[in-house]
Each structure stands twice: as structure tokens, then as C-alpha cells.
Write a structure and sequence with these properties.
alpha+beta, five-stranded antiparallel sheet, globular
Length: 358
Amino acid sequence: MGATYKNNIELTIFGESHGKAIGITIGNLPSGIQIDLDEVARDMKRRAPGQNKMSTARKEADQVEILSGLQDGITTGAPLTGVIYNSDQHSKDYSLLKTNMRPGHSDYPAYIKYKGFNDVRGGGHFSGRITAPIVFAGNIAKQILKQKGIIIGAHILSIGKIKDEKFPVNVDDEMLLKLSEKQYPTIKEDVFEKMEETILKAKENLDSVGGKVECVALHVPAGIGEPFFDSLESHLSSLMFSIPAVKSVSFGDGESIDEMLGSEANDCYYYDEEGNVRTSTNHNGGITGGITNGMPVSCTVTFKPTPSIGKKQKTINVETKENVELEIKGRHDPCIVQRAVVVVEAMMALGILDMMGE
């Protein structure tokens, strides 16, 4: 089972949802970078489970113990390893799932690939819980990028059929700061109330709901990326698709740009009052020809509804070779989108830092 991403920086994740611990090792980080551990803890809390009735009842503090690579709060240049210990597992809730395959989950393909030896408790290594170490690594990347003037932020673009506004072309640091101060970041002030109603209605009906997260990186210099096989879009997409439950990734107005004429989709250049090159629109999400053009890098990430739901569903028993019905027990999020915002930010930060070669 591969669990390592390797390019300019290296990421190796380890652990299972109901194992003793989960964690990550980050290689090739620059040395001499001051890391604010309070900032790390703040992002970890944004993703943590059990904070309200919209998320799983599982309680985890998600405190990171740093084993190596940091001394007196400064990166040493050695691989940085962070561990998060699991403390609230209900493993008995998953005994049925060794043989009864959850629809929409990794159970059946993992059963085939790993010959039935894969850990199904809480999804094992396939669980969204493994994104906690990603958030830790992503916060480190965000802090390094911030020292270069690059700011990253995101908001909930939609949950079910309830939609927020997209980032405007003039999105700035102040807007991202305001969003970062919200527990449920949306641009429209009152839209999350309707999103919450959608989530709780799905939960009441033993069902789940999906949605979209829009993420932006500001002040990324022009010229980052390569054409074709290592474009910034392909680079970021591979990381975004590594997040469990992600089913599509688009950049700028990618999901609707096919409906535009060329005269509408083209982002026209101009010099601003300070002599900086800008574009009047940002339909291409700050990337053209696979390379950044100096405008905000923006992408939209779509999450499917959580596959583990309480409704009875038709499936198979791989032991008896019979068609059966499955009613899933245990603690599951009726929607993961609101907890995934910080995960998308993390992947954006890791991808840009990696592409910048530092």
C-alpha cells in the first residue's frame, strides 16, 4: 500500500482510523523556518470531529506530537514527523463490514486489492481521519508561504443545492482573514443557516449530503508551473483528488467555462496604477498554459455525500456470495464539507510550496 508523495517535498502518511495513531513525515522542508505551533493547533481544531451536531460524535483532540525536524520551534532541515494519537474508537461497530460491502465506500475494491486483510474499522487507511495529518503538514506549508507573502483561504461554496457566492476577481487578504475567523466560512453572511438545515435534514433521514469548497491562493508570482505533464493544474489536482470523497476539481470558472464564448472566457491583461500586470476577469483561475499568470490561483473541489449512511441499502456479502441488505451503525458525518475546508487549504499550500521548489 503506497502512502508517499514525492516531488520537491516528500509526504509519507501512516496509520488507520482506529489504530493507535495517525501521522505524517514531511521531507525536504527548508531549514531555519520559525513555526507557530498555536497556528498549527488552530487549523487542527477547524478539522477536528465531534464539535457539533452536524459532524460525527467521535471526540478527538487532534493534538500533534512532533517527533523530529523541529527544535525550539524552528525547522532543522531533517524530516519533520508529527503524530496524532487516536483516543475514541468504537471498533465493534465495524465487525459486520468485513464481509458486507458498504455502497460508495472503498470496502469492495480494497477487499479485492488487499485480499480481505485491509482494516475496515472506521475506513482504516481510507478514512477521512487520515486528513488530520495532512492539515498539520498543510499548516506548516501555509506558514512557509506566508513568509513569502502568499496567503491561502477557502470557503464553503455549496452544500446540497444551497450555494454561496464565488470569490470575486478582487479577492484580497482582508476577505480571507474574515473568512478564517468564521467557524463555517461563507461569503454571504446568512447562507450557512440554510446549509445547516440541509445537513440536519439529511441526518434526520439517515442520509448524507455533499458540496463544494472553493479555495484561493493570493500573491502567487507569475511563472510557476510547466506546460503539459507538470502544469500547476495537474499538480494541484493530483493532491486534491487524494482527499477522500473528492469527485471533481476545477480551476477558475472551469465547471461553466464551456458555456462561454472565447471573448467571454479570455482574461484580458492590463497594467494597474502600480505597474503590475493584472487581468480584468479571472475565469481561468490564475493559470494559463499550466503556468501562473500572477492573478489569484483559484480552484473548486467537489465532495460527494458521505457513503456511510443509516438507511438500508442493497449490497453483497463476500463471504456467503449473497445479495444482502446493509444498515450501517456507528458514528458518521452527515456532511464532511464544512470540516474539509481546511483540508483543501492544506493541499493547495502543499502543492504550491512543492511547485515552487522550496
